[in-house]
Inverse folding.
């Protein structure tokens, strides 16, 4: 077994890149009055930006926000289906 050498925090190299996507941005897209395909494209772009950021961060995989974005997409699609049913009635 290899002995690990302790490295003080001040000597560690930390990648301090800010998060490019927030839940507020996602909620803003979901609650906007744009067309469904525009919302889906923006959510896809936000998901890609977050995924790229998470791949550059060794300490996180970014899964919670990816799940949040995926849930927002599901809500949008479900909401769109309900609106289509209501207008058909």
């Amino acid at each position: 077994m290899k002995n690990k050498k302790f490295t003080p925090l001040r000597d560690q190299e930390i990648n301090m890149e800010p998060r490019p996507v927030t839940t507020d941005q996602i909620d803003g897209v979901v609650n906007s009055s744009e067309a469904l395909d525009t919302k889906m494209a923006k959510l896809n772009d936000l998901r890609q930006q977050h995924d790229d950021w998470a791949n550059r961060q060794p300490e996180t995989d970014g899964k919670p926000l990816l799940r949040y974005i995926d849930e927002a997409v599901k809500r949008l699609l479900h909401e769109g289906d309900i609106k289509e049913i209501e207008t058909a009635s």
